[in-house]
Design goal:
The chain is mostly helical. About 55% of the residues lie in helices and about 5% in strands. The protein is built from five helices and two strands.
């Protein structure tokens, strides 16, 4: 049973690992998943979603790099004890990048857009 109510749609333009990452990030930043809450193992979530374990591992790795989850060998992955401002900014950046790529913008165009908005 998938207690996270997470589904992967193979027909979306978004890769499965990114769908998983986005869903979990949203649950963490919105408070649906609480600090130190245990996440399903990579193997279990992969089985629940009918995806390869490497797909879930990549999503977890990206979430860990963003500071949203913490992983320990033999202890599994948990929501980080606290999500810092940099973690929230990192998540916003991931969202911006995904949207920019979906709209066909390259890095230079994305930087130009950010630069215009910054001013």
């Amino acid at each position: 049973m998938n207690r996270l109510n997470l589904k992967v749609d193979p027909h979306l333009g978004t890769p499965p690992f990114e769908q998983i990452r986005q869903h979990l990030a949203k649950m963490i930043t919105s408070g649906q998943l609480l600090p130190q809450e245990k996440l399903p193992s990579i193997r279990q979530l992969a089985q629940d979603l009918d995806v390869a374990p490497g797909t879930v591992a990549r999503a977890y790795s990206d979430l860990e790099a963003s500071g949203l989850i913490e992983s320990r060998p033999r202890l599994g992955s948990r929501v980080a004890a606290s999500t810092s401002a940099s973690s929230r900014l990192s998540e916003a950046a991931h969202h911006f990048i995904s949207e920019a790529q979906a709209q066909g913008l390259d890095l230079a165009e994305s930087k130009e857009l950010l630069s215009r908005l910054w001013d």
